[in-house]
Amino acid sequence: MAQRESREDTAYVEVLDPNRQMSDELFAEEMGGAVAAKEFPFRLDSFQMQAIIHLERRDNVLVSAHTSAGKTVVADYAIAMAFRSHSRVIYTFPPPPPHTSFTFTDRYNQSSRARFTKISVDLEYTTQQSLNT
């Protein structure tokens, strides 16, 4: 997909319609024949398709949705785009609960080109009550 020459004709913010139905055919047409950076083993939701189209157009994308809506799919695709173009990625996410064994490298270890550096910060949470004592 060709990168846009001029950004003057685009809105600063485009709010996507999460209720817009998008067929696989329309998605392929909107992708303009671009080779997908990542294939998913499931059908994408409409908002995910719309976000990926904007990513491929080199638009900035911000996804805000409730927990378990599928936001990470868009992040996964953006990371795959960076791998495809041999770019660097900074991906931040909240730490998983202590009882899980999930790690970022487990999730993205599928790319042999990827090199990961884990930066973690241990935070001590203090309740308001303990501050008043």
TrEMBL record:
Protein's name in the database: Uncharacterized protein
Classification via SUPFAM superfamilies: P-loop containing nucleoside triphosphate hydrolases
Keyword Nucleotide-binding: yes
Keywords associated with the record: ATP-binding, Helicase, Hydrolase, Nucleotide-binding
Example GO BP: maturation of 5.8S rRNA
Keyword Nucleotide-binding included in the entry's annotation: yes
GO MF annotations, alphabetized: ATP binding; helicase activity; hydrolase activity
The species this protein was found in: Oppiella nova
Record's GO cellular component terms: nucleus
Domain of life: Eukaryota
